[in-house]
Amino acid sequence: MGHPGNIYELRPVSILRTLPQIKDHRLFQLKLEDGTTWENFGHQPGQFLEVSVFGKGEAPISISSPSTRPDTLELCVRRAGKVTNALFEMDRGSVFNIRGPYGRGFPVDKMKGHKLLLIAGGLGLAPLRSLLLHALDRRGDFDDIILMYGTNNPDNVLFKYELLSFYDRDDIKYLYSVDRDDEGIWKQYVGVVTGLFEKATLSPADTYAVLCGPPIMYRFVLQKLLQLGFSKDHIYMSLERMMKCGVGKCGHCAIGDKYCCMDGPVFPYTEIEGIKEAI
Amino acid sequence: MKTLAKKDLKGVVKAWAEKYHVLAPSRMAKGDCIFDTFQEESFSLDYKKPPLFPKAVFLPHTEVVFEVKDNKLHEVISARNTILFGIRSCDMMGLLQSTSFMTRDRDDIFYSTKKERATIIVMACPGPQNETCFCTTTFSGPVAKKGFDLMFFDMGNDFIIETGSHRGKELLSSGPFTDMDNKLAGEKIKTFKEKAIRDIPVVDEVYEAMRRLKDGAADQKVWEHFGRKCIVCGGCAFVCPTCTCFNVYDQESAPGNGVRARAWDACLYGGFTREASGHNPRPNQASRLKRRHEHKLLYYNESDIQDSLCGCVGCGRCSDYCPVHIGTLEVAREIVKE
Question: Could you read off the pLDDT of B5-17 as tens digits, one per residue?
Fold first, then answer.
């Protein structure tokens, strides 16, 4: 097709189905238009794609599904800008383009044999879900898995039925929180996500903590993890930046001497603790 | 080494222009001297420091990357054989740094195809071109160390020409060039260089500012001070030889038809880091100015700096053109003043 070295080369995909999540959030299941499965796509948990809709532009979207499920690739998208608005206008069978997978994901090989503590806030669950499902599909590779997930209210819980399905499993611990519960319908913890730490028994020495959420969440969760005795090289976080090109050239996602799209979006705490604007 | 009588230069460049697209210092009607397509009438050697390093040769202000017809994208990769005649040493270093950045990890072919077809001729500086030159501070002048195909030394009535590549040697294979004993040429160049180094002031504040930034000892007030002054024109980035940031945008002329293009962008703009959610990791002008200057003086990439000092090449253009005096020199001095 194009020049083999063209870093902006796109691949057409179509929508298999869309699954409404909550207001302005939708899960898109995609298939590659060239007929191949996602098996050879090579995506790692925590990586992202550039979604391209001509006329609107490109937007970085994290991949929500693991390569252990190669029949489809899932993107959990919030309707926020021009590209995502266009996606929400599409239906089953609609075709658009992608580039990727891009960036550095979670170090799943390093995490093997360890406990996993996943801490997500709001849409931050989208990238963490790829790691969570990877770990559940390769359950024998990991020790305990603990998921802490916080949203602002009970209406905004993403992947609701998937999270509920964990009730039937005894190989994952889950702790869910909402910041506010005005109608009194929430059966679990009400308060900020850091409150969930009081309810969990953790063993920092053999656990990898992984977090993703709104900007405000990081500082508080990191403080908590350090207090509990997590070493900084056992804390990984996925950061959000305006990753325009995805290949480390356009400069928009720079964080200190790093580029979120190439060096991240997943960073160990040790790599960014010295960069003031990182968190 | 070769020499060329000054009176023969225009004829030589004219002969090159028959085979290449030659960009050379050109005198404009209003008096400015810029790099433009060679024309006999406007070609000038009295050009000091041109307002812009011709980085648009490699990274055009606006560049179409895809033409789109009925929602099908067709890439547009274009380049032509170009000679860039007479860039200064600081700009040579800027080009080396930019090329390293644009081609490492993932090669940006839109950039590198243009770079591969460009022949670079440096005009060594006999001294400062104006009061903001500080290339000796940043180890990027007055004489280029590498990257050039040819380098000219202005000796008054003639040029001594140093060859930097096979491509440069080819250019000298025909024409009114004469041979000069290498030892004699080397001595003359040495004298030329020593005089230039003597005449270009070293700005110690740049080293001290870099040290303070590294130690986290630069006062936040510096950024707030400049943040209040900055008029967000982005000019400092556009005149900077090492700034390569770009935005990508679509221009839809009819549904499913048009172009996807990229255009120069600047980290000084509020929208540069703003995400679709509205969250902006650099929420004010102080943080954006801090970013620009830390990128040059603190967070430069070791492999990109090409044996110079940092991500600034000491050309002084940001100081020359900023309407409110926020150039690297002013910032370095303010950091040190505190």
Answer: 999 999 999 999 9
Sketch out chain A's domains with CATH numbers.
Answer: 11-102 (2.40.30.10), 108-238 (3.40.50.80)
Which pLDDT tens digit goes with each residue over A50-79? 999 999 999 999 999 999 999 999 999 999
Average pLDDT, chain B: 95
Q: How far is CA B74 from the centre of its chain?
A: 30
Name the residue with tokens 């590659």: A32
Omega before B128 within 30 of 0, i.e. cis: no
pLDDT value for A279: 86
CB contact under 8 A, A6 and B248: no
DSSP β-bridge partners for residue A189: A177
How high is the pLDDT of residue A1?
A: 41
Please report, for residues A163, B71, B123, B155, B325, the alpha-carbon distance to residue B314 in angstroms, rounded to integers and kept in the order given: 57, 45, 16, 24, 16
Handedness of CA A135, A139, A141, A144 (dihedral sign): positive
| ipTM value for the complex | 0.91
Residue B308 CA: distances (Å) to CA of B87, B268, B297: 17, 25, 12
Measured between CB atoms, does A12 come within 8 Å of chain B?
Answer: no
CA torsion angle A139 A220 A214 B285 (round to 10): -140
Greatest pairwise CA separation for chain B in angstroms: 67
Buried b (16+ CB within 10 A) or exposed e, A247-266: bbbbbbbbbbbbbbbbbbbb
Among partner residues B106, B260, B276, which is closest to A80 by beta-carbon distance? B276
Contacts of B276 in chain A (CB under 8 A): 59, 80-81, 83-84
Which two tokens mark B119?
């022949």
From chain B, the residues in CB contact with A255 under 8 A are 281
Residue A27 β-bridge partners = A19, A76
Residue B29 pLDDT grade (very low, low, confident, very high; cuts 50, 70, 90): confident
Partner-chain residue, chosen from A2, A81, A249, that has the shortest CB–CB distance to B276: A81
Q: Which residues contact B136 (CB under 8 A, 6 or more apart)?
A: B142, B197, B200, B201, B202, B314
Bridge partners (DSSP) listed for residue A279: none
What three-state secondary structure class fits B205?
Answer: helix
For chain B, which residues make up each domain, given as ranges?
A: 2-200, 205-337
B109 to chain A: which residues are within 8 Å by CB? 3, 5-7
User: Nearest Cβ partner of A54 from B256, B267, B281?
Assistant: B256
How near does any CA of chain A get to the CA of B102, in Å? 6
Asked whether the beta carbons of A189 and A196 are under 8 A apart, the reply is: yes
Query: What are the φ/ψ torsions at residue A227 (nearest 5 degrees)?
Result: -55, -40
Residue B338 in this model has a pLDDT that exceeds 70: no
Cβ contact B245:A252 at 8 Å: yes
Please state the rounded mean pLDDT for residues A237-249: 95
Q: Collect all residues of chain B within an 8 Å Cβ-Cβ radius of residue A247.
A: 105-106, 108
> How many of the other CB atoms lie within 10 Å of CB of B62?
14
Tokens of B81: 């054989």
